[in-house]
Specification:
Blueprint: E1 5-7, H1 11-18, E2 31-34, E3 39-46, E4 49-57, E5 73-75, H2 86-91, E6 93-98, E7 100-105, E8 113-119, E9 125-134, E10 141-149, H3 153-156, E11 162-163, E12 165-166, H4 171-175, H5 181-186, E13 196-200
Length: about 220
């Protein structure tokens, strides 16, 4: 699964990378420890273009009785059929900007060791995401989940799953409301291992209350 990530890239740079020409998102500084239930930045399709939007991480389908929590990840292998995700997969897909993500590895009998995964060079990237609406009017809640897939060779050393990282040339297709299911499923593959890096970081990141450079410090 993917349960924490970083977004340290300024909004002006994100707008360039993701081709967003509208208003820039609110910016309160770098995020070193984005966690479930928090408000996360997303890029969604809008009138033939793209716009930034904030969504709560934890997907709540429209029919959910309790929107206070929901799955943070969706498995690529079942996303097109599972009731919680299939409607969003059909028509509400999003790019979730990030520039790193964390996974934890069991080392002996001690506490799990966190690792930070990035693209080589540290460039921002996009998780394949889904989003949903719950409620109406002033009570409307918009939520999101990240898709996961089999790990590549780098991720496999730490965890048996990894988030779907989309190549830039796939952004248009992922946001295309008319894309065919088979085309979309073909995108949900492990990112090339040769283009990724990973290193162990401080257990400071274990607490979602911590959001500072110590989270990404190599150990």
């Amino acid at each position: 699964m993917c349960g924490r990530y970083t977004l340290r890239t300024p909004p002006e740079r994100l707008a360039q990378v993701f081709g967003v020409e509208g208003p820039l998102p609110e910016w309160s500084g770098p995020s070193y420890n984005v966690a479930p239930s928090q408000r996360v930045l997303a890029v969604v399709g809008a009138d033939g273009g793209r716009r930034f939007e904030h969504l709560r991480w934890g997907l709540a389908p429209a029919w959910s009785k309790d929107p206070s929590s929901g799955p943070i990840n969706a498995r690529s292998e079942t996303v097109a059929e599972k009731p919680s995700f299939r409607s969003a997969f059909r028509s509400r897909r999003a790019l979730i900007p990030a520039d790193g993500y964390y996974e934890w590895k069991r080392v002996g009998k001690g506490p799990k060791q966190p690792y930070l995964f990035t693209l080589a060079g540290g460039e921002p990237f996009a998780f394949a995401g889904l989003w949903e609406r719950w409620g109406e009017g002033e009570e409307e809640l918009r939520t999101a989940a990240l898709l996961t897939t089999e790990p590549n060779a780098v991720a496999r050393e730490v965890h048996d799953r990894m988030p779907v990282i989309l190549p830039r040339e796939a952004y248009d297709l992922w946001l295309d409301p008319d894309a065919e299911k088979e085309e979309l499923l073909a995108l949900l593959a492990p990112y090339p291992a040769r283009e990724m890096e990973a290193y162990p970081v401080s257990t400071h990141v274990n607490s979602p209350k911590n959001n500072d450079p110590e989270c990404v410090r190599p150990v």
